[in-house]
Structures are given as C-alpha cells and as structure tokens.
Amino acid sequence: MTLEIGFVLLMVVLMLGGLMLEVARPDMIVFVVLTVFLLTGILTSEEALKGFSNQGMLTIALLFIVAGAVQKSGIIDRALARRLKNSKSIPKTMLRVFLPVSGLSAFLNNTPIVVALTPILRKWCEENQISPSKFLIPLSYATILGGTITLMGTSTNLVVHGLMLDNGMEGFSLFELGIVGIPITIVGLVYLITIGYRLLPNNKGMKETVQEHSREYLAEMTVTSDFPFLNQSIQAAGLRQLKGLYLIEIIRGNEKISPVKSTTKIQEGDRLIFTGLISTIAELQKIKGLTLETGTNLTLDSLKNGNTQLVEAVVSHQSTLLYKTIKQVRFRSKYDAGVIAVHRNRERIKSKIGDIVLKPGDTLLLLCGSDFIDKFKQSNDFYVVTPLDTPAVLQEDPKKGWIAISILVAMILLVTFGILSMFKAMSLAAVLLLLARVITPEEAKQSVQFNVLLLIASSFGIGTAMIKTGAAEWIANGLMKIAEPFGLVAVLFSIYLLTNIFTELITNSAAAVMMFPIAMEIAKKMSIDPTGLAVLITIAASASFITPIGYQTNLIVYGPGGYKFTDYIKVGTPLSIIVMVISIWIVHLVWIS
C-alpha cells in the first residue's frame, strides 16, 4: 500500500464514520472529502467536477421534475386511496395497494409515493382499528423493490448507468435490471404479505401516545388577580424564555390563542398551557399569581379551535431546519406553529422544546394555524405533513395530471424502442411539462433535491480518487484473496454483501459509486462480464431493508409508524437474504456463467 492509497482510504473511512454518526448533512460530508482530495492534488479540477456533468446524475435531476409533475396532480394518490375502500383484511389490502405501488415505483421516484400514501394508509388503519406500523415499513420496502425493475426506478440505477457510460460501457437498457428486479419484487411482496407484516409491532401513533400521557406533555396554569404582569406582554412577563417550558396556547374564556406571540398580553383568568419539560413546572409555581391546575382534563383535542389544527410532520433530508435548534430557526413565527413534542427513534426527546436540535426523520407534533399546510407546500422542510383529522390527498387539476402521465408514458415508449436515450427523453419530457404549464418553473425547481444531487456528484469524485490512486485495485485484490478460493459465487456474494453494508450505513447512491470501481477491477482480473457486476451492485445498493438510514423512504415512515431500530432488523433481515440469494443466482446464470 502506497502513502497515497493510505491517505485516500483514511479519508473514506472518516467519511463513512461521519455519515454513520450524522455529524452533518451527508452531502456536506462527502463534498468536504472531495474538496480535501482536490486541495491535496489527489484530483485535478476536471476530475473533481466530473460528477457534476455526469449523464446519470443530470438524468436524476430531470427525473425529479417529471415525477414531481405527475405527483402534483394527485391522480395516483386518489386511485390508490380508492383501492383501500371496502377492504378490511391486512393481506388483501396489502396486495391491492403494494402491487400497483411497486409498479409505479418502477417509473416514478419512490419518495413522493411514500410521502403521499403514508397519511392515506394511516387514516385507513385508524378507521379499521389496525396499527399503521403493520403497513408503513412494508410500504417503504414495496417501493424499494419496485424501483429495481427499470433504469428510471431509482437514482441508484441511473448513477450506475452513468458510471458505465463514463467507463466506455453501453449502460443499462430501460428494462435490463428487470431481469433481476421483477423476480425479487414478486418474491419480496409475497414475503411481506404473508410473513413480514406479522413480525412488526402493533404500535400506537404519536398522537395516541401523547393523548394517553397528556400529563407528561402538557401542563395548565391559571393567571390570578395578584399576577404582577397583568395586561403586559408575554415577553415582559418573562414567559418567553423559560428554563424547560414552552407556552403553546392561552385559553381565555371560549377563545383559544395559539400559537402565542411574544406581544400577546396576559389577562386575569387566562389559562396558560405549557409543553416541554413538565418536571420544571415548579419554577413557574414560585411566580406570584400563577397557580397550577392539578385536576385538569386537558387533552390534545381540547387545544384545537376553528383556526388551528394538530399536525404531525417528519423533518426531511433536505430541510433548512437540519442541525439547528427550534429556537434558532424561529419555528413559531416561520410556520405559525407551536411544537408540542419531538419524537426521535420512537422516543420523546425530553428537553426544552426550543433547545432541541432537529435531525432527518424527527417527528414533530404541532399545533398550527390553518395556513400551515400551504406554507409546507412551498418548502422542502418536511416529508410528511399529516393533519391528524383527515388524510391529505391532493386535489389538483385532473386534466394537467393526465397530460403529465401521458408525457411520462410517451417518454417510456421512446426509451423502450431505442428512439431516444434516457437523458434525452427526460429532457424532452421536462420541457413539454413546462410548455404545457403542468408544472411551473418554480415548482420544477422545488421538485429537484439539490442536496441529493450534490451528494451523488461528489461521490463520483470519491470514486475517481479510489481508481486513480489504486485504492480500488487494492481493495479488489483483498476481496479476491479472501473470496476467490471459495469459487466465483463467493466473489459475487462478497461484492453484494459489501455494497449492501455500505448502503445500510451511508446512502444507496454513495455506496454504488464507491463499489463500482472495485467491482470493475474484479471483473477485469477475473475476465468476467462487467455488466453482471454492475447489475449486482445496483440491486445491492438499492436493497436497503435492515436500517432506517440507508434509504429515504425507510426514514420517512420511521416516526409515523412509531418504529424502533430493531423493527427494521427483524423484518428486513429475512428480506435482505431473500433478495441477495435471488440476485446472485440470476446474475450468475444470465451474465457470468
């Protein structure tokens, strides 16, 4: 091992550690490592920027726009919601929903599909007295499996396709991955519908948990005539910067004031509703004129009025709120919403609300104004915003929806018959959607997940550094030394397993980019078809079932399903083994034997 190889591998290990420990946003961590390689001369400027002009990466950007236009119409959401009607049995309902969902995921970005269906499925579960935790992990897995069927099914497929083109290979045809993708989807769905859902817990939702333990979340104090700050503002009374409490609402007679502004004046008889660290309420009891109501029957529903609603929101990977405290982002004024509680890994974060540092996948229970949903639609801060009374099904112009779907189908046909490449077809589709005013330029910009693109483009540079310095060849030699004595299948198994471990610990696209040069070195040394190994890496990088952090859709359902980390291990491990065995068998049979 040379000094250069050692340095590259050290930086890669540090990058993996940073991604696992979530020290910062994934795209920032990978971009910093890319910058280090550029500054130390490992990469030239052209090599570092190569990923930003890669065809696969640019195709992903266009795919976001096309998928956003189709999703915006709400046609697919309403069609799937109709399939839930008059269905009571869990296996039958799963079959009726997950089969079309897997099919849609083959052609659309699976993230918006999971985002749209999560509140609809939760509502159906509520009505049928079934725990949503039985459905939400299987929903995520069904979309992941469906994404392996076509080239455009997921960003990982397009990333590997772009790497193949860069390396002088032909790349994948539209349905080539389906040779493996269709069998693993069918077998995977059978497993989820018959065995998988039975391994999942009967969890209560966040609202039900808070409702049952209201005294741990909410406290009520009444303002008496001897309160020294009567008719003065909340700010002047010192109720804005409390040690562990957050003033969520003021009940004044029949009027409910929320969210509470710093300028709101306190009157005698006001009932002040606090959330946060209720154990610190003793501090408030020391203030003259504030009395704790011990026999109150305060519930979440009692906080609502005609202008407010209870909402559950999941913080997204591309949120502007990430790694900042609720106080720093001025949440109350930005969204006209008060945070009642924050859950992470199924557990409530027991801290002063304003001091909680937000991370991807955090679930917020909010008391917010009636315009919160509109504000959410204008940002990428949240994956799922669920009003806890009715499911959020979009009601857009159906005519535009059918235009979007028609353009998507036309694009698929052009690629299938080899008339246009995927990149050209996507470009044409995006232009047509804009010209037909199905989607506005502003909406198109919002649909593109720039942090995902930065992560992927930067990962290309990391992969180039591994090839250029010989680090990829060094790892490939090590893998072959261990696996080759046990035969070709053992080599395929080691490639799949290493890719799958990377994707569970970091992200799917980054895992694919890092493993691609290693796999190509092995293909060269063993004189086997590199396309087979590219297929294997693509499937292994997508097959993230064992942790919630490897794939966005797993993280989206984490909070709403009330899951523990171990729930993913319990139901995902058998599915991972099934997918691995089938994938290695088919790749060996079709491309390598």
Structural class: alpha+beta
Strand order of the largest sheet: 3-2-4-1-5
- Give the overall shape, derived from the CA principal axes: globular
Distance between the termini: 33 Å
Strand content: 5-15%
Mean pLDDT metric: 85
Would you count the extended β strands for me? 10
Low-confidence stretches: 390-395
> Given the structure, what is the number of helices?
25
Oligomer: single chain
Tell me the radius of gyration: 26 Å
What is the percent of helical residues? 40-55%
Main sheet properties: 5 strands, antiparallel
Describe, in plain words, how this protein is organized in 3D.
It is a single chain. It contains 25 helices and ten strands. By secondary structure, the protein is α+β, with helices and mostly antiparallel strands. It has helices at 3-21, 26-39, 45-49, 55-73, 75-84, 90-105, 110-127, 136-146, 155-166, 178-194, 206-212, 214-217, 281-285, 331-335, 372-377, 398-416, 422-435, 441-447, 450-469, 471-483, 488-505, 508-526, 530-542, 552-558, 565-592, and strands spanning 218-223, 245-252, 255-257, 271-276, 290-292, 308-315, 337-344, 347-348, 363-369, 382-387. Helix 22 (508-526) runs antiparallel to helix 23. The longest helix has 28 residues, at 565-592. It is globular, with a radius of gyration of 26 Å. A five-stranded antiparallel sheet has the order 3-2-4-1-5. The protein has a five-stranded antiparallel sheet with strand order 8-7-9-6-10. Strand 7 and strand 8 form a beta hairpin. Helix content is 55%, strand content 10%.
